[in-house]
């Protein structure tokens, strides 16, 4: 019997263990065009918190009692599909479980079809981090949404996270200057190791004074690009320090996912005088450009310009724990579950 995590109840605020339940799913013979994937790696991501609410959003809510979905990498163990033969490695959205049947007449989990992984010489788990949605989100947000250019100053929040750490490395590889924000001395030290020109510790004090001091030390008058993973105080500090024609790529706002508190907007009027462009985006917006991303990112990884780092929990049973760890800053780099 396959096992899967379900949403047992909808959380109010920060989820807890009681919101999740493990179920067993019955096995059945494969139908025409179907194939079974045994998962080896599962992804947990901040966006999943929004899907736990019974509210309309860019992704459908998780259905109570049904297997949850999320990014996963696994190996085909049985197949009636010539495009996905036994032994093939697959990236798909049938996560939060140990195995899944895909293809045939089944609707793809989360509406995203499975992809047979090309042989680019990268570890399997990288397809859930720097070669997957987090890496693509960083690359598209920085280069396509914000249109960042060599020599520009980039401010990135959650710079020790899966997306932010990739933004930092790609920006440096493309000749930009980077100020990263992270929580705690160890994470800040790692962001500095990634090549950031300056790092601020949001746990050590207010963001804006630290950001202004970093800019002064770098001899810069402001930021050209803000890559937002956090929202809140970071967003307002970015507004206050923007140059004219600055561009904001809004990837996430984890600061408000569990507590819809009022956001500081003291510097919101800066948008007008500085003609700031603020644009939200989603990874699926750039599906057509994924081959371009794959080629460039694989080259950056091979050259050593971009390195992946994962925080790994062992075993399917640890999946909710891994997810909840995202909101306490437990992860450095990508949070993954290894089966």
Walk me through the structure.
There is one protein chain. By secondary structure, the chain is of the alpha/beta class. 25% of the residues lie in helices and 25% in strands. The protein has nine helices and 15 strands. Helix 4 (185-193) links the parallel strand 9 (177-182) and strand 10. The protein is globular, with a radius of gyration of 20 Å. The relative contact order is 0.15.
Secondary structure blueprint with pairings:
Layout: E1 2-7, E2 20-25, E3 34-43, H1 48-51, E4 72-79, E5 89-92, E6 99-103, E7 115-116, H2 133-145, E8 153-156, H3 162-173, E9 177-182, H4 185-193, E10 198-201, H5 207-218, E11 223-228, H6 232-240, E12 242-250, H7 270-273, E13 277-280, H8 290-303, E14 310-314, H9 319-325, E15 334-338
Parallel strand pairs: 8-9, 8-11, 9-10, 11-12, 12-13, 14-15
Antiparallel strand pairs: 1-2, 3-4, 3-6, 3-15, 4-5, 5-7
Helix pairs in contact: 2-3, 2-8
Keywords:
globular, seven-stranded mixed β-sheet, six-stranded parallel β-sheet, single chain, 339 residues, alpha/beta
Describe the structure concisely.
The protein has 339 residues and is of the alpha/beta class. It has helices at residues 48-51, 133-145, 162-173, 185-193, 207-218, 232-240, 270-273, 290-303, 319-325; strands spanning 2-7, 20-25, 34-43, 72-79, 89-92, 99-103, 115-116, 153-156, 177-182, 198-201, 223-228, 242-250, 277-280, 310-314, 334-338.
Integer-rounded radius of gyration? 20 Å
Structural class: alpha/beta
Shape: globular
Give the count of helical stretches.
9
- What fraction, in percent, of the residue positions are helical? 10-25%
**Secondary-structure element order, N to C:** EEEHEEEEHEHEHEHEHEHEHEHE
On the 0 to 100 scale, the average pLDDT is 93
Percent of sequence in beta strands: 15-25%
């Amino acid at each position: 019997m396959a096992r899967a995590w379900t949403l047992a109840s909808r959380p109010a605020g920060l989820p807890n263990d009681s919101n999740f339940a493990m179920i067993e799913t019955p096995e059945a013979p494969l139908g025409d065009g179907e194939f079974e994937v045994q998962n080896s790696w599962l992804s947990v991501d901040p966006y999943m918190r929004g899907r736990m609410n019974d509210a309309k959003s860019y992704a459908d809510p998780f259905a109570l009692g049904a297997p949850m979905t999320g990014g996963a990498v696994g190996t085909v163990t049985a197949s009636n599909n010539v495009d996905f033969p036994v032994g093939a490695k697959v990236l798909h959205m049938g996560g939060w479980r140990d195995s899944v049947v895909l293809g045939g007449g089944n609707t793809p989990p989360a509406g995203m079809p499975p992809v047979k992984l090309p042989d680019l010489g990268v570890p399997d788990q990288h397809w859930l981090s720097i070669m997957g949605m987090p890496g693509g989100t960083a690359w598209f947000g920085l280069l396509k949404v914000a249109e960042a250019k060599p020599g520009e100053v980039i401010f990135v929040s959650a710079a020790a996270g899966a997306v932010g750490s990739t933004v930092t490395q790609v920006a440096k590889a493309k000749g930009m200057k980077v100020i990263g924000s992270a929580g705690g001395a160890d994470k800040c030290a790692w962001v500095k190791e990634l090549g950031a020109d300056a790092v601020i510790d949001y746990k050590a004090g207010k963001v804006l004074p630290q950001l202004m001091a970093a800019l002064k030390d770098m001899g810069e008058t402001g930021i050209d690009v803000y890559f937002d993973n956090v929202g809140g105080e970071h967003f307002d500090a970015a507004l206050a320090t923007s140059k004219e024609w600055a561009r904001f790529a809004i990837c996430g706002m984890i600061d408000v996912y569990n507590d819809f508190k009022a956001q500081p907007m003291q510097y919101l009027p800066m948008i007008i005088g500085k003609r700031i462009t603020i644009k939200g985006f989603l990874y699926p917006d750039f599906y057509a450009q994924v081959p371009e991303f794959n080629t460039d990112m694989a080259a950056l990884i091979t050259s050593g310009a971009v390195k992946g780092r994962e925080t790994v929990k062992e075993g399917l049973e640890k999946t909710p724990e891994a997810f909840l760890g995202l909101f306490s800053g437990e992860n450095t780099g990508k949070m993954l579950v290894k089966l």
